[in-house]
Amino acid sequence: MTRGQEDLSIDLIDYTVGTDASGQMKALPSKLKLMTASEEDCQLHEKILAEIAKASKKDPVWSPSAASN
User: Fold this and answer.
1) pTM assigned to the model
2) What does the pLDDT read at residue 36?
3) Which of 31, 43, 45, 59 has the fewest CB atoms below 10 angstroms from its CB?
């Protein structure tokens, strides 16, 4: 994290499809390659998320335990 950022919030990013600066419609990406994570990748990801939760002393907002709060 840099410049005093205290969380992983990305609320300021606009992911909507619309027009570019010239007013032309933006094309949706095509020919996307779908790559699935291996079981090892998933386990490592969960380990990192657990370390982040421990360091921040709260669960990530996308975790199942946070959804029940």
Assistant:
1) 0.45
2) 94
3) 31
Task: Measure the CA–CA gap between 43 and 34, rounded to whole angstroms.
Answer: 19
Phi first, then psi: what are they for 40, rounded to 5°? Answer: -65, -45
Residue 41 has pLDDT above 80, yes or no: yes
- The predicted pLDDT at position 10 comes to 57
CA 37 to chain centre: 15
Q: What is the model's pLDDT at position 44?
A: 94
Q: Which amino acid is at 46?
A: E
Q: What's the half-sphere exposure (Cβ side, CA atoms, 13 Å) at 29?
A: 6
